[in-house]
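TICKET: design request
STATUS: open
ATTACHED STRUCTURE:
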């Protein structure tokens, strides 16, 4: 695997290998084992968008693996004065061993990868968030909620980057996927078609029916970064899709609740759900670290 630009385009064997690797890395870390496989390696973290989990997980991950991460943002770099993505990619390729980029436009990520001679990781774009999806399937795997016979119900904005990566990753791992959303905000047909090659994917507008019997109930913010001008319209459309304790009661008794964070209590999820016993959101967040380490080792370890 040369780059990690999205779940789309991956082989399911590659995804399964990353999940198993992340689980092993986590177990070793919890047991106190040291791993300096990335000693003298450098990761450049290119940020156009704000971040909490992406920056912390990659920077901590590089430190724990013996390497170094450089925070590099658009505002304080020459990109803000017009230096091109292609020139920036060429320069970073001469300094580092890999690039993680968190950008608005997926097209800019592809431009970066075309001009980079080192691995490029998608830390988030408007199309996909594959690093989050990797941590999510790791979490489901740990809790026995992933694979054939399991169902994930994704509620809310089924057309965003989280939904795209998550539906495809879960389907590739054998889970059935239900996308529960307002009729006026349908999912990305290209990702639905791709995910349907691996497992059953259904699009539902009825919230109760959509989560009925699900093993996992997942939601995300209704207004993503860059969509602020649509806030009023979106809050009205998604209002009936809040995940409440009554909604969770429709899922399996032992179902888990997931959210990639940051969350808005009282909007997409009720406080008693995200802070309740079925919630695994902070386990998800921690798993970003272990998933990222598996990814970094896959792309960087042993490469000159």
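STATUS: resolved
RESOLUTION: sequence designed for all positions
ATTACHED SEQUENCE:
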């Amino acid at each position: 695997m040369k780059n990690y630009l999205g779940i789309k385009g991956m082989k399911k064997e590659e995804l399964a290998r990353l999940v198993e690797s992340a689980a092993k890395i986590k177990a070793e870390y919890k047991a106190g084992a040291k791993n300096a496989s990335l000693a003298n390696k450098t990761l450049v973290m290119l940020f156009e968008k704000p971040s909490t989990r992406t920056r912390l997980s990659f920077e901590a991950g590089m430190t724990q693996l013996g390497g170094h991460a450089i925070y590099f943002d658009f505002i304080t770099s020459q990109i803000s004065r017009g230096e091109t993505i292609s020139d920036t990619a060429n320069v970073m390729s001469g300094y580092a061993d890999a690039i993680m980029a968190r950008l608005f436009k997926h097209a800019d990520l592809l431009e970066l990868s075309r001009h980079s001679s080192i691995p490029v990781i998608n830390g988030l774009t408007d199309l996909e968030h594959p690093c989050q999806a990797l941590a999510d399937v790791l979490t489901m795997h740990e809790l026995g909620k992933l694979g054939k016979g399991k169902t994930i119900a994704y509620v809310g904005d089924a057309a965003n980057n989280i939904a795209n990566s998550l539906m495809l990753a879960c389907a590739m791992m054998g889970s059935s996927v239900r996308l529960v959303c307002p009729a006026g905000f349908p999912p990305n047909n290209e990702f639905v078609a791709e995910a349907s090659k691996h497992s059953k994917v259904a699009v539902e507008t009825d919230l109760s029916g959509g989560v009925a019997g699900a093993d996992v109930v997942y939601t995300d913010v209704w207004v993503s970064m860059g969509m602020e001008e649509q806030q009023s319209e979106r809050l009205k459309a998604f209002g009936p899709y809040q995940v409440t304790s009554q909604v969770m009661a429709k899922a399996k008794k032992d179902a888990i609740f997931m959210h990639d964070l940051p969350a808005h209590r009282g909007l997409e999820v009720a406080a008693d759900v995200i802070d309740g016993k079925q919630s695994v959101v902070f386990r998800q967040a921690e798993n970003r670290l272990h998933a990222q380490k598996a990814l970094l080792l896959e792309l960087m370890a042993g490469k000159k």
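CLOSING REMARK: The mean pLDDT is 96. The radius of gyration is 19 Å.
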